[in-house]
Amino acid sequence: MRSDLPLAGDDQSRYIPWIVAIMVYLACLALAGALLAGSAVERWNKGLSGALTVQIMPGKNADPKAAEARVRDAVSLLAATPGVVHAEALGDARIAQLLSPWLGDEALHDLPLPALIDVRLAPGVAIDLQSLGARLAKAVPGAEIDDHQRWLRRLVMLGRAVEALAGVILVLIASAAAAATVFGTRAALAVHHHVIEVLHLIGAQDSYVARQFQLHALKLGLRGGGVGLLAAAVTLAAFWYLASAGGAPVAAFAALIPWGWASLLLLPVATGLIAMLTARRTVLGALAEMV
Amino acid sequence: MTHREPVVRFENVGMRYGMGPEVLRDVSFELGAGSFHFLTGASGAGKSSLLKLMYLAHRPSRGLVHLFGRDMATTDRHEMPGLRRRIGVVFQDFRLIDHLSAFDNVALPLRVADAEPGRVDTQVAELLGWVGLAEHLDSTPPTLSGGQQQRVAIARAVINRPNLLLADEPTGNVDNEIAVRLLYLFEELNRLGTTIVIATHNEALVRRFSYPCLHLAGGELKVRAAPKRTVA
């Protein structure tokens, strides 16, 4: 579009795309962090909300047959409980596999290990865990239910805190982008005041003048946003590569596809729109002070 | 505006800049539709201030300004652009936009009024040819002489066939031949119905074209009858 104002050659607008690029880069990382945290919380919730673990502490007399009988009783009681779709005692090898990272292989031979029963619940069925726990403890002394909620709650809280922090960072970045646009637009208004006055006096509507500023701000925002997005994409790809190379699970990255990545792509567009609307508002405010 | 209503009507208008002294005092006059007036007075008499009130760049400190039958004190700000498009202004310092070509400067009033591009091209090229700048359509103001810039400024003021044309020293930077030619352009516009006010120091021009004068002295305005026309 033809412009009556030489905004593209302004010194003060030369740095705005770089400022926007840095902001969009940080915003992309914050949003990616929030999405990854949200995705992880979701997976933990899904993986554990339909499951229970029953732990049976070893008795005082280490009679293996008595211990097996206690486990069988517990499994029978659990399997007969409405809402339980599957109850299975974990074998010694599986228990050893779960505990060896914390206790070491040697210690496992010396310590009395509890028996563990993996319980799967029917989706959407509410079970009175307190009553089930009481019945279980009565039938099999030493049996305890762990519904994973204690540590899951903390993890979920941590994940939500990361999401909230990212949200605050995004709001701050949007505010900073708007502030940078306001200062840039005011400087441009001052520099081009004589041209704006001529346009005003020959009958240009305020929106005609504002349109030129807002389109310029949109271009600067999109250009800076594109650079910031590109840099963020390189950084996230590097994280992915390092996480994959280190053997860490990359499922969280993959879980973001497609809407998570789409929201990252929208950040430069959102920044451009913020810059555009801020410039428009600033110009209309300034023009309203003219006769 | 009714047919007989004046294009411009001032009633006891006073104007001051900020807290300074009044530069215009108790100014009252009317300009009928299709009239032609010179605005005369010594430097600092208030000619530019009076023009600023007429082209809606300032508000009066007191008194009433009516343009096209509308009281400017009660006219909504959103209606001002529409009124300004009916006014052509030749500024004393031209106020051309340096980065735009002569063509684009003259085209501005048409473009802000959303005129069709085809009409813009034809009218602008024709008018710039008429003022002797056909060879300079793509020249930017800094590359033009003072006289050429003044003609671009005049072309920009008249391109929209305004109802009211206000010109502040429009012949100040051109030789006598061009000055007379520009006055003929203004007369032509006047014949088409445009109300014209030309601020000038050029007494010879005032005598030659013989139109009534709005004379300002010490911020006060008197209307003088047309002097007897002299032959060049």
Radius of gyration of chain A, in Å, reads 31 Å
Most residues in contact: chain pair? A-B, 17 and 25 residues
Quote the average pLDDT of chain A.
Answer: 84
Total count of strands of chain B: 10
Structural class of chain A: alpha+beta
Helix content of chain A: over 70%
The major pleated sheet of chain A works out as: 4 strands, antiparallel
- Give the overall silhouette of chain A: elongated
Helix-strand sequence of chain A: HEHEHHEHEHHHHH
Strand order of the largest sheet of chain A: 2-3-1-4
CATH homolog superfamily of the largest domain in chain B? P-loop containing nucleotide triphosphate hydrolases
Quick gist of this model?
The complex is a heterodimer of chains A (291) and B (232). Helices cover 70% and strands 8% of the residues of chain A. By secondary structure, chain A is α+β, with helices and mostly antiparallel strands.
Q: How is this fold's topology laid out?
A:
The complex is a heterodimer of chains A (about 290) and B (about 230).
Chain A: H1 16-49, E1 51-56, H2 64-79, E2 84-89, H3 92-103, H4 105-110, E3 115-121, H5 129-139, E4 143-146, H6 149-191, H7 193-201, H8 206-245, H9 251-255, H10 259-287
Antiparallel strand pairs in A: 1-3, 1-4, 2-3
Helix pairs in contact in A: 1-6, 1-8, 1-10, 6-10, 8-10
Chain B: E1 8-16, E2 22-31, E3 36-41, H1 47-54, E4 62-67, E5 70-71, H2 80-84, E6 87-90, H3 102-112, H4 117-130, H5 146-158, E7 164-168, H6 176-191, E8 195-199, H7 203-209, E9 213-217, E10 220-224
Parallel strand pairs in B: 3-8, 3-9, 6-7, 7-8
Antiparallel strand pairs in B: 1-2, 1-4, 4-5, 9-10
Helix pairs in contact in B: 3-4, 3-5
